[in-house]
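Tutorial sheet, problem 5. The two components below are modelled jointly, 762 residues in total.
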Amino acid sequence: MVKHIDFSTLMASTVHDMKNVIAAVSHAYESLFAEMPEELQNSPQARLIEQEALRLDAMLMQLLGLYKLEHGQLSLQPVYCRLDELFEDLHNRHRELLDYRNIDLQIDLDEPDLEGYFDVSLIGTVLDNALGNALNYCKKTIRLHARREDNGILLSINDDGAGYPDSLLGAVRDSQSSSIDRNSGSTGLGLYFAANIVAMHDQEDRPARLELSNDGELPGACMKIWLGLPSLF
Amino acid sequence: MIDFSKKHFLVVDDFSEFRSSIRGILRLLGAQHIDTAANGIDVLELCRRHRYDIILHDYNLGEGLNGQQVLEQLHAEKLLSVHCIFIMVTAENTQAMVLAALECEPDDYLTKPFNKVALQTRLERLVRRKQVLAPVLKAVEAGKPDLVLQVCQAIEQKDPRHAVLCLRHMATALEDLARYQDLGQLLEQQARSRPTGWNLQALARLWLRQGRFEPLTRLLTAGVRQFPMMPELRDIQAELAALQGDRPATLEALQHAVTLSPNTLRRQTKLASQAWLNDDTQTALHALRQSWELARYSASFDHELLWQLASILTRATTTAKLPDEAQQWLSIIEKTNKQTPPMQSAAALLRSEEQRRKGVTFTASELQTQLGVLQAHKHTFAAISLLQLGDWLALLGETDAAESLWHDCAQRHAGTSGVLEQISSRLPNLDLQPLQQALALSRQAVALHYQEQQEQAQTLFEQALQQAPKLIELNMAAARLFQDQLRQQHADAEQRLHACLQRIAGLSKLDPEYVNFTHMQSSLELSPW
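Model answer (structure tokens):
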């Protein structure tokens, strides 16, 4: 007898395997890379392999995240995280593409030792998506900014592109974002995921916030995320 | 850039592809000394022979020990230098796995898959962190808490951004120096400005010891709201409820902790014991079966848990033949414990019960050998085993032997929530008052000890010890005071500490105090004073 498995579970398990495949391919590529002559190392094809592997992995992460979200399996593992390290990691993950496209990534922290309290891997995925979008729409500059606000931290990703369309502007909550047309492409899905991840960081009387605006320091799109810091007394 | 060429790496994963792929990445980072292992036993063996600077350890190694058990064993055998960086690698960030991986406190953990840049940045940060902390770690290694405080203060002044790394070492040093008031201040200040898991746990434990139950209750309520994924806070809630005599709340808190993080053995066994004492057989059975699943491959797994399983299963039936599952556990015990007479005798007792149910009557001499062994080793059994062993002996008509085990259980385990209730139903004529008084005195003394009123604490401990010299909770509490006094070079502290440990010698491996007990014992043997 064939045991019935629902499609989404099958998909999740396949995605899992796909992630391992990507990891294995990337590791093999990294070993090969070290042996390549310099001109090959600097070739557009090498960049393409790196970018696309990264993009595929990010898409799979998001897919797996969405599956877990739907099935209530996504659990939050918040920890303190230095924001300089968060941004450094983010920069590292996109460095090849940024360099290749000659885009200037500015990192700006109001205080050098700022830290936040959140699930590093989930918020990392949200930021990866946001940076990916910014990369698509910016002209030549992207700015990552962090500051302390209301016993929490405010993160923003801002670019010098054309900005969000008016229909997207304002605060985004998980409940509203489901009204986004999820068939319309990656932006909608990414935003849906981001809104849910941010909402998971709500504290009892202090909800986390996700907001889209065009009023950043740079003229283009600006995504802002506010996450509370823990307090006991 | 950090130079990895001199560092010794150990890469642990059950998949050879993953081992070679990590090795490949490490080579790209300049690493030259890379060992690999596929299972926990090999890791322990390698660590006994070599000192590694960086260990990348997969959590789930298939059959056999998992990463958490390996790390616990490495700590227990003191095979890791304080300078070693241990990174737990998890394939998937499921809650049970991540919480279990965090509970044994690796330096960091990484989710697979990761690429070269991710590993490199992570390693560089960790190495830099250890470099900053190196003088602190050296002082820790040398066992000099005064020096730890000094160098921590120096780091704080020189580079305030690293102050946060020092806090935990400062807290441990203050505790080693028995400066509990200062410790409380440090922890409370930290809990107000930047609450973290360890800091909250340490503050809660201190307040529990100091008997500050009201602020502690508020702290724990706020704590579980703010840090819902922290099973240790539920453990402390359970301890608080136990001290307040609220057995249902004790069990509930433990169940909560186990639901959050089911992969920790000591918590499962504690849950099993508390559930049985609360007459919740199903929960006890479930927790015992889980314990077996978790630790069956661990060399330190205590087969007494299997005996408890078999015993509870047998108790739940009246059929002549023992239930199949009980038979299965008994066979495992009999096969693997040929050199452990008390386990053999305990198993034989259940076999005798089967005979009794089939109508066989026993003469006194037939049970003599088993009785002798059980009597001689009664101190090595956990509380709920002693109660159950007594129950079986009573059914076999060995009332005196049964009562002797129950008596012993009361004398030693009265501090365990629920034990005295079980005893009073079995020995209705036993006067429990002296034990209860001794417990009350002991708990007052603990509060005084952690309020830095050592002399008053000592007087109360001595009074209590006259009333209940074998009580484990009391002896361990007094031992902690004498250990502090020993560090402060009080006269006779060593003898008093030794006497406490001697009175509860042979403590069951399943006792919640077992780890602390063995630590104290070995520190006494190595004592430089």
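Marking note: Residues 116-141 of chain B form the longest helix (26 residues). Full credit if you identified this.
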